[in-house]
Write a structure and sequence with these properties.
- Helix content is 33%, strand content 16%.
- By secondary structure, it is of the alpha+beta class.
- Strand 3 and strand 4 form a beta hairpin.
- Helix 6 packs across helix 9.
- The radius of gyration is 21 Å and the shape is elongated.
- The structure holds iron/sulfur cluster (2 copies) and FE2/S2 (inorganic) cluster (FES).
- The site of one iron/sulfur cluster has 13 residues, from helix 8 and helix 9.
Length: 248
């Protein structure tokens, strides 16, 4: 059995440092297995968050060799083992301890978004009719596991710390789910511009590249939402019409 070095961030908000651990590596292992092995044998107090070990709960987000990844879905045969595997917490949120960050800001942000508001049922038995094409459009967004890796990589949050002004790609995906839902009647376009900060996104597509669910965040969610904002507020004809529709 081969040995590999894992360089893991240890510390809290007061400070910390990377610490090297050796772990035994066998076929089929993922980074989370190595972290668990180290936790069990050498560092019982090493804090990490995980739940499903199947890429579905979104808990085990970390940065592995500088890349935002799920620890449970990063196989060790995808990582060079002739040098230390560097594992550190995601950077866009406050550190609690070791690999665990406080992502509660995301849950507070979600509550600021107007919820789903369906139209009255289409049929007397209380059911609706939707075209498959409209259903398919939002289905992609519903794959989100709230791992917040896209939030971590977005420079607006990570580098510029505009958490008060910008909801981040995860919640632009959520807004797209609601705005493009064929039954939804709510209007969130003004909030997209004024409160949720869509204008801060400059379409770098970094969020799309790290999404473990392969959601096409920028092309399918953010750009169509930006188009709605532009159509509503910056299209000359719409601006003229708004003179007769106060409130926007
Ligand atoms: S495309 Fe927009 S939301 Fe995604 S990482 Fe870039 S700035 Fe952030
Ligand atoms: S959109 Fe993708 S990267 Fe962002 S939270 Fe959802 S699953 Fe994670
Ligand atoms: S432990 Fe659930 S996504 Fe990794």
């Amino acid at each position: 059995m081969a040995q590999a070095t894992f360089r893991i961030w240890r510390g809290d908000q007061k400070g910390g440092q990377f610490q090297d651990y050796q772990a035994e590596v066998s076929e089929g292992m993922v980074v989370l297995d190595a972290v668990h092995q180290i936790q069990a044998t050498q560092a019982n107090d090493l804090a990490c968050r995980w739940n499903c070990k199947a890429g579905k709960c979104g808990s085990c987000s970390a940065e592995i060799n500088g890349q935002p990844r799920l620890m449970c879905m990063t196989r060790l045969d995808q990582v060079p083992l002739d040098q230390p595997v560097v594992i550190e917490p995601i950077q866009a949120f406050p550190l609690i301890k070791d690999l665990v960050t406080d992502v509660s800001w995301n849950y507070r942000v979600k509550k600021t978004i107007k919820p789903f508001k369906p139209r009255p049922p289409d049929a007397p038995d209380g059911t609706w009719r939707m075209s498959q094409e409209d259903v398919d459009r939002v289905q992609e967004f519903r794959k989100c596991i709230e791992c917040f890796l896209c939030q971590d990589v977005c420079h607006v949050l990570r580098d510029h710390h505009l958490h008060e002004e910008f909801v981040g790609p995860r919640f632009l995906v959520h807004l797209a789910t609601l705005e493009m839902h064929p039954l939804d009647t709510e209007d969130r376009v003004k909030e997209l511009r004024d409160k949720h900060g869509i204008g801060f996104c400059n379409i770098t597509k970094c969020c799309t590249k790290v999404c473990p669910e392969h959601i096409t965040i920028t092309d399918n969610a953010i750009i169509p939402l930006k188009e709605r904002v532009v159509d509503r507020f910056y299209d000359p004809l719409t601006r003229l019409l708004r003179l007769f529709r106060p409130g926007d």
